[in-house]
Amino acid sequence: MSQQIRKAEGKLGILTPGMGAVATTFMAGVIAINKGLAKPIGSVSQMGNIRLGKRTENRNPLIKDFVPLANLQDIVFGGWDLYEDNVYQAAMHAKVLDANMLFQIKAELEAIRPMKAVFDRTFVKNLDGTYIKTGTDKMDLAKQVMNDIENFKEANDLDRVVMVWCGSTEIYFEASEVHNTIEAFEQGLKDNDPNISPSMIYAYAAIKLGVPFANGAPNLTCDIPALVELSKQTSTPIAGKDFKTGQTLMKTILAPGLYARALGVSGWFSTNILGNRDGLVLDDPDNFKTKEVSKLGVLEDIFKPEDNPELYGDIYHKVRINYYPPHGDNKESWDNIDIFGWMGYQMQIKVNFLCRDSILAAPIVLDLALFIDLAKRADMSGIQEWLSFYLKSPQTAEGLRPEHDIFKQLIKMQNTLRHLMGEDLITHLGLDYYQELVDEIL
C-alpha cells in the first residue's frame, strides 16, 4: 500500500487553536530541536522504533525512517489565541521552559503571532478573552477561520496544513439535534445555535477545507455525527479526544497490568493539583465535568466490570482536580488504589506522580500532527482510531467501545503503520519459531 501514500513534499503548517502552555512548549521544542539545542524525547514518531518481520530478522527501524513523515525542518507554526502575546511572550508567561532556552530561540518565537480567536465565555467561564473575533453569526466566524487557514497557507507557501486543538476544556454538554447532520449543523451556525461551541467552529472550518483535525481536549468538538459525516465527504482524517498526559497515562499503564494478572480492584481514588491556565479553567464545575467524564471512562473500559463482576463489579472510582496556582504547569497527582488478590486478601498501591503537564503534552501534539498528515496523504478519512494511543477518551465509530489499554493501542498504531507500508502485521503469537524446530526434528 506504500505506493498510494503521497510524499511529504514541501512545507507543513501546524495550526493550533490555543497558544498557551501546551502549544508554546510544542512550538519552542520543535524549533530548539531543529537548532540542535534539544532532543524530541517523548515523541514516538521521532524516537520510537517499530519491529518489522520476525524477531530473528532484527529489523527495528525508527518510525520516522519507516514511514514518510514530514521533516521537522519543514514545519511552520501558526494558531489563534484569546490574548495577543507572541509565542515568546506566551511561553515566558507559561513558565514551562527555562528562560535561557527560550532566549536562544527568541527571534523564531517572536515571529509567531496568534490570529484573533473565536471565543464564547459561555463555554469557558473562567477566562476573559481580549483578542477575539466578532461576526454576524457563527457561520460568519467559521468563514473567518477558513480565511485565516487559507491566508496562512498562502503567506507561508505551504503544501499542506493540519490543525490540533490546544485550547481550553469547554463546559460539559451532550450532542443534540443540531449535531446530528451536516445540514442541521450548518443551519445552526447561521442561527447562532447555543449548542455549537467555539471548538466545533474551528473543527468545522478545518474539515470543510479538507484540513486534518485532532482534538486535544475532552470537548465534543468533532465527536458528533455531523462533523464525522463532513470528514467523510471531504476525505479528511479526524482524531480525538483529550491528550493522554499525566494521571490518565499512568492509569492506562497500571490498570492493564492488574487486569492481565486477574487482580481485583475495589477502589481507585485520584486527585490532582495544577496551577496553569488549564487548572484555572477546570476550577469551574461545568468545565471540570467534561474532564471528569473523560477520565472516568478509562478504568471502566479496561476492567469491563460487567464481564468481571467478582474482580471489578464494586469498584469505586473518584477523580478530583484542584486549582493550585503556586505549582503552575507542574501538575502533581496522587492515586490510592485498593486491590485484592488470592483468597481476597487486601493490598494497596500508592502513586505520587510529579509531572510537567505541557512537557508530556508537547510530543503528543507533534505526533498527532505528523500522523494525521500521513493519514491525509494516504487517503484515509473519518475517525482515525489508530491514534487513540495518544488520547484519554478515544473517538470511535458509533456503537464501538474505545480501547484504553495503552499496550493494545500501541499494537493497533504500529500495525496500522505496517499495513500502510505493505509490511506483515505482527500478532506476537510466536509459535512459528518453535514449529520450525519441531518440523526439523521430525
TrEMBL record:
The chain crosses the membrane at residues 12-33. It comes from Terrimonas ginsenosidimutans. PANTHER family: MYO-INOSITOL-1 PHOSPHATE SYNTHASE. It comes from the Bacteria. The keyword Transmembrane applies. Residues 246-358 form the Myo-inositol-1-phosphate synthase GAPDH-like domain. Keywords: Membrane, Transmembrane, Transmembrane helix. Pfam families: Inos-1-P_synth, NAD_binding_5. InterPro entries: Myo-inos-1-P_Synthase, Myo-inos-1-P_Synthase_GAPDH, NAD(P)-bd_dom_sf. This is Inositol-3-phosphate synthase. Belongs to the myo-inositol 1-phosphate synthase family.
